[in-house]
Write a structure and sequence with these properties.
This protein is an all-alpha fold. Helices cover about 70% and strands about 0% of the residues. Helix 13 packs antiparallel against helix 16 (about 325-355). The two termini are about 15 Å apart.
Length: about 375
């Protein structure tokens, strides 16, 4: 197993570099880079921009480090070339793309992600500032989905074809068909003062007087704030996981070893949880890291916006809109690295749950 782990870790490096390279190349063709963003903000100031340029124009369509002369910034006509050159140097665009990429990879290998272009804060501090929201949504949504879906899926498998199975399947299908953002709006309207009851708060992870609360009250206040966003994030994952659990158990229940165990006089509970559970739950439990990472990374931009939560979803969207490349590439690098490591953790969980699995015998 040790050799397999080393091979997987060795593959993480070229895979991560490939991810960064593909996105770096793609970003070269995206119009409206950081320099254009600065010029657009100057234009938005009206008299400042007009005084310098004599009336602005449209932003150019150049991308990160593309082009050669200052005429590529159509909105900068009339600005001194020295000013544009200083902007490009400040953002690092005075170097060719290949050199910029190599410098970026070298810095990222040392976990030096630099500072945000427009927020005057380091990328690491910015991510850590938004992390609590994403951890709250990702962790609790995943845990609740598993805690409800696994027992429900097992029960549906045992009662396959019964009235209980039929009614719960209908409810699951309805839950799966409802988009998360639409369910979030429904919860907001019903329970967050939209039109009916003002039961849950609408903004943030905690109340304004958080510092004055006792520890038990802080815990209650925290769960009070995240109840609706977590419920909205859980709805689709809950349906998928329940059906996956049911199908896994149904497949195992029909196998010969289950019939043999029952023939020996073992109780249904002993057969179900002593023999079937480990085999049926292999794919469900071992996939926990991947499920959590997908919920955590993806977050939910719409749900965060609806409930006024400032998490990584909104951070990524705002960074993409403002062309804040250090934030975009820094978070991409960290999330890509964690995602690749979680793939390895998933494999290790397979082995932990079922020691019969041996990745050493697989061809590399």
């Amino acid at each position: 197993m040790g050799a397999y782990i080393l091979r997987r870790i060795a593959l993480i490096i070229p895979t991560l570099i490939g991810i960064m390279l593909i996105n770096f190349v793609m970003i070269q063709f995206v119009p409206g880079g950081p320099v254009e963003q600065v010029l657009a903000r100057m234009e938005g100031q009206g008299d400042v921009f007009d005084t310098i340029s004599g009336g602005g124009g449209d932003m150019g369509s150049s991308s990160m480090g593309q082009g050669g002369g200052n005429d590529k910034y159509l909105g900068a006509r009339g600005l001194p070339p020295e000013f544009i050159a200083e902007l490009e140097k400040e953002f690092g665009f005075d170097k060719p793309p290949v050199e910029r990429f190599l410098i970026m990879i070298w810095n990222y290998a040392r976990f030096d992600f630099g500072d945000s272009y427009f927020r005057s804060i380091s990328v690491v501090d910015l991510v850590l500032e938004k992390m609590p929201v994403s951890i709250s949504l990702g962790l609790w949504s995943t845990l609740i989905a598993y805690l409800i879906s696994i027992p429900l899926g097992i029960r549906k498998a045992v009662k396959d074809g019964s009235r209980f199975d039929t009614w719960t399947s209908g409810a699951i299908i309805v839950g799966y068909a409802i988009p998360g953002f639409l369910f979030a709006i429904l919860l907001l309207v019903l329970f967050a003062g939209g039109s009916y009851w003002q039961i849950f708060p609408l903004r943030g992870l905690y109340s304004d007087n958080w510092a004055e609360m006792s520890i038990p009250m802080r815990i209650v206040d925290y769960f009070w704030h995240i109840a609706l966003p977590v419920l909205a994030s859980t709805i689709s994952a809950f349906a998928t996981l329940t059906l996956l659990t049911k199908n896994s158990f149904l497949e195992e229940i029909k196998k010969q070893y289950v019939m043999t165990a029952k023939a020996k006089g073992l109780t249904e509970s002993r057969v179900l949880y002593g023999h079937v559970f480990r085999n049926a739950m292999l794919i469900v439990i071992a996939g926990f890291p991947a499920v959590f990472v997908s919920v955590f990374f993806g977050g939910s931009l719409i749900i965060e916006t609806i409930f006024s939560l400032d998490g990584l979803g909104r951070l990524g969207f705002e960074a993409a809109v403002s062309r804040d490349y250090p934030v975009i590439f820094g978070t991409l690098y960290v999330f890509g690295l964690i995602g690749l490591l979680m793939g390895l953790v998933s494999d290790l969980m397979y082995v932990w749950i079922d020691p019969r699995i041996d990745f050493e015998t697989r061809e590399t």
